[in-house]
Amino acid sequence: MNTIGVRTLLVKEVRRFMRVPGQTVLSPLISTSLYFLVFGYTLGGRQAEVDGVPYVAYIVPGLVFLGLANNAFLNSSSSLFITKIQGTIVDLLAAPLGATELLVGFIAGAMTRGLLVGLLTWLVALVFTGVQLAHPALTFGFLFLTAWVFSVLGLLAGLWADKFEQINFFPTFLMLPLTFLGGVFYSVHRLPEPFRTASLFNPVVYMVEGLRAGMLDKSDVSPLLGLSLLLGLAVSATATAWVLLARGYKIRN
Amino acid sequence: MADAVLELEGLTKRYPKLVALDGVSLRIEAGEIFALLGPNGAGKTTLIGAVCGLVKPTSGLIRLFGAAETGSTVAARYQLGLVPQEINFDPFFTVRECLRIQQGYYGRQPDEARIDEVLGALKLAEKADAPTRALSGGMKRRLLVAKALVHRPRLVFLDEPTAGVDVELRRDLWQYVRKLRAEGTTIVLTTHYLEEAEELADRVGVIDHGKLLLVEPKAALLSRLGERRLTVRLSSALAELPEGARLEGAVLEDGGTRVVYRERRGEKSSAEVLGALYAAKLPIAEVETASSSLEEVMMRVLREGGAAR
Questions:
Q1: CB-based contact (8 Å) between A172 and chain B?
Q2: Rounded to whole angstroms, how far apart are CA atoms A248 and B227?
């Protein structure tokens, strides 16, 4: 294992997104703040409660998820894709970096950005709601697994994409609908059937509800089931990415 | 025989409609400069790509530094350096940062002294802290060379390293390549500038349509397939060569004002021919001799294909 190589790739990935903090860190915070204002303080959100929790606090876990998932995905997908387009992928392929090293480096870099934005989102939420962290370890477990899953999905998208348009395909046509139908802004238990049952096939529900269990001690689904599902998803997506990298899918001729 | 740093056996790369490498077998010896020559699309870059991990070979064996490798050369790549043909740069980083990153990729801790040495040798020191996007095309090419060398590789592939750069860089690079060779680095070079290969190479390989047509020491190749051309300008035109000057290979050209003799190995020497022309009392005004360049030899090899072996 080329540990210095992996560390170099990780540090490079972090420096890359920190060179454009307005785009990579500040921008998600502004959109999160707007979500709080629009959904938490207008539209009657200030007075409403969900399962005994003020609505503005209820949406915090979902908004942390949004920031984290989007940024973890965007970091690995755009970084790998740009590397392909710029031709600097040659530097990685010619170096003594195997599939494992590339995978760990890209995923760790993307998870760092996702977790950083998630943390900053949570800090912004403190301004609106005060500290709400019922189970720190459980919260971190869900944050970690969510960042892992979306980092790997971003890597897969970056490998697959040949055009910028294809990179946007996942966030627009997959992540956005799954996120908005995944209980970020509402409780899936309040949905009528068959939508309630259908929601249980949406993996985002388990991520959001898991964070809700960790932060607010409220959840519509079992956190243990959520952790198991997320771990399974993360491991299988990672294995897929490893195989594709080892085969040089769309990066080696 | 010197140790081999790279051995290829039957290396083949097939695409659906193209055979880019067709059973190439080659041995690169430690400390030599090997020039791989051939026209566009001959397979030079594919061969380098297969060794450096950019291309997956269809079949064949790649052995680097004596260790058998078939599918992957990852472990051996710590000791490889590659200057790719296409210019690439990462706009997020400065020149120095790029070199630090490159050292890290190759499992090395940052070595500022080595970075400064490479920057100085390639006349990039003034640009060390400049963002890569601010470099000119020639500077970006220098940076590629610096990246390929900063981790002290034992075997370096230079794929068209001086394409589109000015004469100064070309001369600087040649000087640095010679220095590297003197320090024991093995260099595989592809270039469109045959003058470059002629200047630097110890051995030459000619590849076309994925087949390696020949591999030979440069001097032996030039001697075997090259020719010496003797041109004798006459002060007055002749209708035909007089008796005594009618030598095999000597022809009258340019309206009878020039006698040209092409000497090949094993044939009558130019000196003997010139002596015969003087003896025949030709009105000689001027004598020129010239030897074939590597370019002319390569063109001959390509024309004749494997027959030139």
A1: no
A2: 47
